């Protein structure tokens, strides 16, 4: 008995146990298998597994509105990216925005590649600093920030941490602006980003706390945020 003699539902169930690399090679084996691999359920399952494996935040992919080729393309993107890096086929992307007179000090790409978080300061001495979230899936030629929140301090430390919520749909932005003098303690900010909030604030300050010790180092262990000798529950 060959692979093609198996019932279709058995083949689809078998595909759910294969990784992306194997599925990609299986598609190229023959036309009947390639036709079978157009099944939407196979690639939704594969993309959900990848989202769990890489910690991709919710809202990156809309399984209900995406066409099957889009889901398949998203599922094989990590594998194709690895191949592109291996064969040095990566080209830079130029991203134009409406923001001027700001300097980005820190940035972090949320797992999944859709949301980019930046901490920026004004090029002049006047004006607030900003935490901004950018939607890299935006089709606009010149992009506006998806969410922004002004920050009082002018300079940031060296750590910017993104922590996915327990529901997997949003994430928290955690950072520590530099204190005004060496004697002052570092203050850790915890912001909540909610891309599902269309009516209210998409980015808001949850709370802050002073870190014991003069350090901007931020660590996450489970639901706890550790900075210096201070430990705070993030939930």
UniProtKB/TrEMBL annotation:
Residues 1-46 form the F-box domain. InterPro entries: F-box-like_dom_sf, F-box_dom. It comes from the Eukaryota. This is F-box domain-containing protein. It comes from Tulasnella calospora MUT 4182.
């Amino acid at each position: 008995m060959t692979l093609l003699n198996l019932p279709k539902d058995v083949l689809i169930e078998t595909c759910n146990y294969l990784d992306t690399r194997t599925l990609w090679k299986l598609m190229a084996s023959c036309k009947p298998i390639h036709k079978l691999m157009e099944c939407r359920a196979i690639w939704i399952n594969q993309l959900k597994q990848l989202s769990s494996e890489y910690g991709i935040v919710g809202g990156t992919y809309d399984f209900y509105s995406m066409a099957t080729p889009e889901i398949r393309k998203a599922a094989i993107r990590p594998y194709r990216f690895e191949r592109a890096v291996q064969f040095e086929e990566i080209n830079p992307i130029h991203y134009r925005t409406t923001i001027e007179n700001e300097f980005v000090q820190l940035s972090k790409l949320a797992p999944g590649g859709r949301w980019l978080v930046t901490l920026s300061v004004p090029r002049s001495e006047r004006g607030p600093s900003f935490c901004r979230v950018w939607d890299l899936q935006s089709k606009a030629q010149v992009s506006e920030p998806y969410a922004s929140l002004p920050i009082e301090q002018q300079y940031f430390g060296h750590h910017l941490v993104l922590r996915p919520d327990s529901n997997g749909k949003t994430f928290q932005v955690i950072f520590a602006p530099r204190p005004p003098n060496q004697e002052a303690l570092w203050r850790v900010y915890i912001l909540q980003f909610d891309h599902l909030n269309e009516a209210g604030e998409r980015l808001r300050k949850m709370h802050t706390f002073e870190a014991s010790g003069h350090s901007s180092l931020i660590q996450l262990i489970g639901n706890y945020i550790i900075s210096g000798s201070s430990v705070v529950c993030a939930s």
